[in-house]
Amino acid sequence: MQETFVFVLSLTAIFIFAKIFGEVAVRCGQSSVIGELFAGIIIGPSVLGIVNGLPVLTEISELGAIILLFEVGLSTNMKEFFKAGGWAIAVAIVGVILPYFLGYFTFLHFGFSSSQAIFAGAVLTATSVGITARVFSDLNTLETKEAKIVLGAAVIDDVIGLAILAVVSKLAEGSGVSFSTVANVTLTAVVFLVTAVGLGLLITPSIFKFIDKTKQQHLAFIVGISFCFTISALSIKAGLAPIVGAFAAGLVLSNLKQSKEIKNDLKPIYAFFVPVFFVLMGTNVEIGVFNPLIAENRHILLLAGVLFAVAFIGKAAAGFVVFQKGINKLLVGISMVPRGEVGLIFASIGLQNKVFVKEDYSALVAVIMLTTFVTPIILKILLSQKQKI
Amino acid sequence: MQETFVFVLSLTAIFIFAKIFGEVAVRCGQSSVIGELFAGIIIGPSVLGIVNGLPVLTEISELGAIILLFEVGLSTNMKEFFKAGGWAIAVAIVGVILPYFLGYFTFLHFGFSSSQAIFAGAVLTATSVGITARVFSDLNTLETKEAKIVLGAAVIDDVIGLAILAVVSKLAEGSGVSFSTVANVTLTAVVFLVTAVGLGLLITPSIFKFIDKTKQQHLAFIVGISFCFTISALSIKAGLAPIVGAFAAGLVLSNLKQSKEIKNDLKPIYAFFVPVFFVLMGTNVEIGVFNPLIAENRHILLLAGVLFAVAFIGKAAAGFVVFQKGINKLLVGISMVPRGEVGLIFASIGLQNKVFVKEDYSALVAVIMLTTFVTPIILKILLSQKQKI
Question: Residue B113's CB: how many other CB atoms inside 10 A?
C-alpha cells in the first residue's frame, strides 16, 4: 500500500505541475515540452524533492517515450519524406553533420572521452519538427516554400537521427569504438529498420482492411498499439532502443486509412504517459550545476554556453545550402534549431547507459531547452518581417 | 532493457488476448469482463504462462482498479441514489445481508477461519450494475419499474459494498475481529467517505466553474483524474483501500456539468488500464483446481458449487421484498445476481492480503464469473416472457 501511495501521489504531482507549467509555457508562446521539463526540475530532487526515482515511474516514462516516438512516426508523412526534394535532403544532411562534429569536438575540447563526445554529437543532430511546425502554422505560413523544405528536412532528420541513435547507444553499452563495431551496428540498425518497415508495409494493409470490415470500435487502435509494442520489443531483441521500433511502427501505420483514428485514440494515452516522460527527464536535471557562484560549475556553464552556440550555428548554417532565389535561407536554418523531444531521448539514453553523469546531462538538457526556447521567438520576428515585405 | 522487453511484450499479450476473448464474450451476449478474465486464465501461469507476476504490471493493474472505480463513481447518478425509493433501498439491504451471511456460514462450514469467512461474505455482497443495465438496455426495458428499482438498488449496493470493503480489508491486515476494531474501522470509513464526499461537493463546483471559463481543452479531465488520485492516496493514508477513495472521487464529480467530458476523456485510459486489471485477476486463477479427476479438488469444486447456489439465491430472494403489484419480483432479484468487477476487486484484495490462498481465490472468481455469466441468459428469457404478456 505504501508503494501505491507514493506512486499515486507522484503521478498526481506530475500531472498537476506538468499541466500548470505546460500551460504557462504555451501562453508565453513556447512549447509545452519546455514547461513540462521545467515542472520536472521543480518537483525533482534538486528543488522540491516531491518525485524521486520510483521504479514504476521509470517504466511508465519509458512507455511514454515509446508512445511519443510512435506518435512521431504516425505523424510522419512518408510521401513528404520521399517528395522532400533535393534541397530538403541537403539541408537535413548538412544539419546533421555540422552539429554532430561541432558537438563532438566541443566535448573533446572540454576533456571528455571520445565515446562521450560521440554521444553528445548525436544529441545535437535531432530536429524537433513539432515546434517549428506550430510556429509556421500559428503564423499561417505552412504553405511557404521555406516551410516545405524545413518540414521535409525535419522528417529526414528524424530517420537519420534514429539510425545514429541505434549506433551510438550500442556503442554506449561498452563495445568500444572501432570501425567494425560501428559497421556492425549500422548494418543491424539498417537491416532491422528496412525489414520492419518493409514487412510492415506488406502485411499491415490487409490486416487493417480486415479490421475496417469488422466495424469494431477502437480495434484499429488496439491492434496499432500492439503492433507498436511488438516492434519495440523486437527492436530490443535486435539490440536497438525500443523507441527505434516504435518509430518504425508509427511510420508503417502512417499511410493507412485508419491512421487518423489510431492517432485520435492515442491522444489521451499520450496525454497520460508522455508528460511523465518529460517531467522525469526534468527531475534528472541538477539545477545546482548552473549556480555561477560555485567555481567548479563555471566549467559546466561554459560547456553549456559553447554547446548552445554550436547547436544553434550548426543548424542555422545548414539553411544556407539552399541555393535558390527567393528563399529566406536564415529562416530555413533557424527553423531547424529546436532539438525538442528527440534530442532529449538521446540525452536520457546517455544518462541511463552512464555515458553521461548528471552534470553533463544537465548541460545537454539546458542546451536542448534553450534551442527550443529561442527558436519560436526568432522565427516570429523573421516571419513577421517577411510578411511585411 | 530486458525488463522493458518483458514488460512491453506482456502488455501486447494482455491487449491482444483481452480484445479477442472480450469480443468473443460480447458476441455470445456476455460481458467483455468474462472474456478478459478468461484471457487472463489462458495467458497466466496455469495454462500458457506468457504473463507472470511482473511488479510493474501489478502497479498498472492497481491503477486499473482505481480508474475502474473512478468510472463507476462517475457513472453513479447521485440523484437516482437519493430518489431510489423505499423498494430499491429494501432490495439493496436484503441483497447485501442475505448473501453476506450465506457466504459467511458456507465458508465456516467448509472449515475456513472466521476472518476468511468474513471476507468471503463481503465478496458476495456486490452487485455489478453494468451487466444488468446492458441487458435491460439491449431489450429496451430500461424504463420499466423493475429496471428502476434494480438500478437504484445496485447503486446503493456499491456504496454499502465499499463501506464493507473498508472494514473487511482493515480486518484482513491482521487486527483480528473484535467489536472495537469493527466499530473503529467502520467509523474511520464512514468519516472518511462523508468528509471526502462532503468537502468534495463543497469545493469542486467552484474549481470546475473556473475550469469551464478557461476554455482549456482536457483541463477538466486532468484536474478530475488528479482529484481521483489525490483522494485515493488520502484513503490509503486513512487505512482504507485506494479504490474507496477513487469511488468517492467519482461520486463527487458525477454531478458536475463536465462529468461527461471527464468520462469521455477517461475512456481510452480506461481501455488501456482496466483490461490489465481483469486479465491479471485471471492470471491468478489456478485452473487445475477445477480438475474433478484429482480427489483433493472435489472439496474446492463443492465449495464453488455451494457458493454459487448461495450467491444466486441470496440476491434472487432479495427481489421478493418488493410488495408491490405488477412487479416481477423474480426479475428484480435475478437482475441483482451478477457480481462483476466489484466482487472481483474484493476477491483480489483478499488474495493480496493473504486472507485467501490461490485455491479459495480461484473458487471465488469462478463463482463471480458464473453469476455474471448466467444472469444475462436468464434475464433475456424472463424479459421476453414479460414482453409477450
Answer: 12
Residue B225 Cα, gap to closest chain A Cα (Å)? 8
Gap between the Cα atoms of A119 and B337, Å rounded: 62
Interface probe, candidates B3, B4, B7, chain A, greatest A C-beta count within 10 A: B4
- pLDDT tier for residue B317 given thresholds of 50, 70 and 90: very high
What Å distances lie between residue B199 and A222, B194, B204, B247, B262, CA to CA?
A: 39, 8, 8, 15, 20
- Contacts with B63 from chain A: Cβ below 8 Å: 7-8
CATH architecture of the region B65-271+298-388: Up-down Bundle (1.20)
Q: Distance (Å, rounded) from C-alpha A213 to C-alpha B364?
A: 39
Which of A11, A225, A232 is closest, CB to CB, to B15? A225
Q: Which residue has the cell 545514429?
A: A164
- Find the mean pLDDT for residues A147-164: 79
Q: What is the pLDDT of residue B178?
A: 64
Confidence label for B177 from pLDDT (cuts 50, 70 and 90) = low
CB contact B264 to A (< 8 Å): no
What are the contacts of B131-136 at 24+ separation with CB within 8 A? B131/B31, B131/B33, B131/B338, B131/B340, B131/B372, B131/B375, B131/B376, B132/B335, B132/B336, B132/B338, B132/B375, B132/B379, B134/B31, B134/B376, B135/B335, B135/B375, B135/B376, B135/B379, B135/B380, B135/B383, B136/B335, B136/B379, B136/B383
What does DSSP assign to residue A173? I
Pick the CATH number of A68-274+288-388 from 1.10.620.20, 3.20.80.10, 3.20.20.140, 1.20.1530.20: 1.20.1530.20
Q: Which helix (H) or strand (E) holds B334?
A: helix B329-335
Q: Which residues of A touch B269 (CB under 8 A)?
A: 268-269, 272
Give the pLDDT mean for A215-228.
84
Candidates B158, B253, B246, B258; CA nearest to B200 is B253
Q: Kindly list the residues from chain A whose CB atom is less than 8 angstroms away from the CB atom of residue B272.
A: 269, 272
Domain boundaries, chain B: 65-271+298-388
pLDDT tens digits along B183-235:
777 787 778 888 888 898 899 999 888 888 876 677 888 889 999 999 999 88
Residue B17 with chain A: CB contacts under 8 Å: none
The grid coordinates of residue A383 equal: 516571419
* A388: nearest Cα among A154, A78, A197, A139: A139
Q: For B33-50, how does the pLDDT look when each residue is reduced to its tens digit (9 = 90+)?
A: 888 888 998 998 888 888
From B172, B185, B182, B184, select the one nearest B113 (Cα to Cα): B172
Q: What per-residue confidence (pLDDT) applies to A178? A: 65
Does the structure show a pLDDT above 90 at A171?
no
Q: What one-character DSSP code corresponds to residue A175? A: I
Torsion region of A140: left, alpha or beta (phi above 0 gives left; psi -120 to 50 gives alpha): left
Identify the pLDDT of residue A155.
74
Give which of A2, A3, A6, A8 to mutate to test B binding, by max B Cβ within 10 Å: A8
